[in-house]
Amino acid sequence: MRIKIMDITPLNEQTPTKYEFAAKSFRALPNPFGEYSESSKNPVVYECYVEIQDLPSDFPMETNPREQSLTTQVAKSIKESLETDLGNFQIKNRGIVVSAESVVFNTRSSVITINMTDIDVHGNIDGGHTYRIILDNRGDIADPRYVRLEIIIGAEDFFQDLAKARNTSVQVKDNSIAELEKKFELIKEPLKDVQGIDLNKHIAFKENEASKRISVENIISILYNFNIDDFSDAERQPVSTYSQKSYCLKQYVKFHNEMGESEDSKKSNPFYKMKKIIPEILTLYDHIELTLNEKYRESDGKGRYGALKGVQSKKEGSHATFKTEVLDKDLEFKSPRSFVLPILSSFRALVAKDENGLYKFEANPFEYYDHLGAQMIKNTVERSRTLGNNPNALGKDTGHWRDLYNLVDLEYKKHLINRLIEESKTSNLQ
Fold this sequence. Notes:
Blueprint: E1 2-3, E2 17-22, E3 24-29, E4 44-51, H1 73-84, H2 89-92, E5 96-100, E6 102-106, E7 111-116, E8 123-126, H3 128-137, E9 146-153, H4 159-166, H5 174-180, H6 185-191, E10 203-204, E11 214-215, H7 216-223, H8 240-243, H9 245-259, H10 270-273, H11 278-299, E12 312-313, E13 322-323, E14 330-331, E15 333-334, H12 337-346, E16 351-353, E17 359-361, H13 365-386, H14 391-395, H15 398-429
Parallel strand pairs: 5-9, 10-11
Antiparallel strand pairs: 1-6, 2-7, 3-4, 4-9, 5-8, 6-7, 12-15, 13-14, 16-17
Helix pairs in contact: 1-3, 7-9, 11-12, 11-13, 12-15, 13-15
């Protein structure tokens, strides 16, 4: 006898992905608010036990909010339990949760059939670490092992919230949830071309993306320095970009949630407003990091930049390499972020809004840095010394951020005054 538990018209025109494998103790947990139907899409939960050797090896993982790191203590504990807990692994482990379009169980053959039609909403939601560890280690396990599999039908409309709620044993970081909810699409377009590099390929938008060299949290913290809606003058300084990177990310998500994604509403989002200057901001950050050593030599011909507290330099015989944070360029010395960010942030004084409300640079920040950079790093080093050569204290010193901002702001105002004087002279001659 074959019992058809669920058979629903496909959600889209994709060819369904079908998984057929043996299962034990299959059961349904009917929704107390009613059955799943086309008019009443109440999700339904099914669960069973699956022998690890029968578990499909290609469940979609796009629906899981985080990449899997197998080096954590949690991952090591799961692996140890899999290897040693004969008969109890399926009880001790939380199991694997998947979202699917439909599920069918054949009571005669004890074979389960799961259909997934859209990898954006169907696939692994929770238990990604358990899944990866089973796939990586089951070849070395001869004795039977079972894992609990939970299948949820009808969760397409809220699978992001479901994934967020289920991933609570080890807290999922805000960036993983934001990436799952496609909230970073706002900045991904301008990130496609930063000095000819598609930075999206190098940014870890989700946690545990070990192959990516820069986190989206770092990118957001850099960009947040140019939020002139919240930091319009010298009085308020974005010190949180150094001291609280996670706060900057929370603000990014908050703006996205409050202002939405429609063309009209998102125009109020500071990160939307800065989209035209995002490549320039990131290039400037990289340029500052790359040239601080040179600017320090300009300001102090005798001093050794590598001897400053917080600056990393290569030790004799070491093969260590230093790279700029954004564009991955070779560095002789690695500067602390507390040196770079306040200098970068000062060029917010050159930003204004165009006729469409988008941010723009009123003057070339690279020219201003070329002119003021030596003074900026000199002020930075002197301020650090007054704080006991403590780079961390320097990064949190609002007064230092304000002084650098005022330096750029004053220089720009001098430029405007000089331009007015020249225009007045030309006008008088005519």
